[in-house]
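Schema walkthrough. Field components (list of strings):
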Amino acid sequence: MAEAQDLEARFQARIDNEERIEPKDWMPDAYRKTLIRQISQHAHSEVIGMQPEGTWITRAPSLKRKTILLSKVQDEGGHGLYLYSAAETLGASREEMIAALHGERAKYSSIFNYPALTWADIGAIGWLVDSAAIINQIPLQRCSYGPYARAMVRICKEESFHQRQGYDIMVSLATGTPEQKAMAQDALNRWWWPSVQMFGPPDDASTHSARSMAWKIKRYSNDELRQKFIDQAVEQAKILGLEVPDPDLEWDEASGHYRTGAIDWDEFNRVVAGDGPCNRERLETHRRVHEDGAWVREAVAAYAEKQAARQAQQVAREANAGEAEQSRRVSRGREL
Amino acid sequence: MSLLDAVVGLADDALVLGHRLSEWCGRAPFLEEDLAIANTALDLLGRARTLYGYAETLGGRNEDEYAFLRDAPEFRNLLIYELPGDDFAAACARQFLVDVFDDLYLTELAASRDETLAELGAKCAKESTWHRRHSGEWLNRLGDGTAESHERMQRALEGVWGYHLELFETGPGETRLVASGVLPDRGALERRWSAAVHEAIRSATLDVPSNGRRVAGGRAGEHTEHLGIMLAEMQQLPRACPGANW
Ligand SMILES: [Fe+2]
Ligand SMILES: [Fe+2]
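Field assembly_structure (string):
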């Protein structure tokens, strides 16, 4: 008992000292569990997030946009991969994590339960959703868990391109034909509040925050990060000449921040609980793709096994041939 | 056929296959393969854009007019590229056959007397060598994997077989460009292609489908139904908003 307390105290001291925790280091069970939950959910978000944008790759309106969007969505898949690997260093297998997603024991970012209805949504997602992701992820580069922090460094490098391509689409639309401008405004109307909610529940209702802060998994509160996003996005909307869909939005001179109207947390909770427009579809698509690919993954495993057996046989054959040669030489030596 | 027509034909080949592969994004059997397919798709889309860009300098239209404002009969891609390939085995089978061809063709194109094509050939041959290695691996894994994957791959090969012959046809008017050393002689590649492909199919424990079938017509604009459906999706937005900038 005293020993466990000692370990825990030393662990916390390392964290307080800004040292990175690595996979082989001792860590409290709850720290490990919290990280597996957070990192796997982060990974699932990257992968599920490929769906709304993915549906527009085949419909992108120019070859340049098609190319950019495809490489953007490909990046998100890569992020999923880095993150699954980071979670694997904590002892979770990818298969288990995917099973938890399919079994609805693991969540993903609720924003992806909204549909990408028009091309402007691709702009709005890149601009707002990737902006929010960047703001969330920058502090995670200094997360106490080494593999997660390093994955975030790689991811953050790519995210700024995502944000730029989204904003660039919005600029083209906002300066385009009246129909395009209307499309841009409509997308902002639909993506604004879900993006604001991406930072999670307000601080006074956030359940895991205090401990994650102490462990330096989290460094800023949900509301702090949200404020950063709002201040930035409102300015960008102005440049675009689009209107943020919040009649109560106002500039607060004293604090130097924008203040939004009341955030509809009932709506947020309803979507998190499963009743957003696309919850069922997102999960169903992921399940179906996974099931459709089962025979391929089985073939990969079977082929790898056959190859390994062939290699082992080859090694054995060569060893036997070597021994036979050796004994032949020996017996020839005797004859001489 | 003029150089412009030939360049547009090659561009269409790359665009149509690139688009087909982009349909796989988010749908591959596992994440690593999702990224690999996207890489190949991006290479092909890049290839298409370079070729359309060249076509424009030869007096043609711009890349988006070519891609989005032509109807199916105006497309000049070979049929093998437009087949759906929405089954993973079918996608792999088609990919391997065309990758071996592209690898051979582009390597020769790198020696073209046309500087732009030579440069493109050199760059793209490297990509296709990589693609070929990747799809060749799939031929092995699926052919020599499980009984089910073997059967699916065999069926996929049968399904695409016969469409490949068009790869070796020199179109009307192309003869002049071949003779002047601007374009490689497609027909001359068939023997090497067959040797490589047959050998790979057999070593993947699969059977080379029997010859005798031959489907062609792409360069003359005679397509399958699949292309029109693909274009309906691809072209919908620019067609709905004429003159808009994206
Ligand atoms: Fe990402
Ligand atoms: Fe992103």
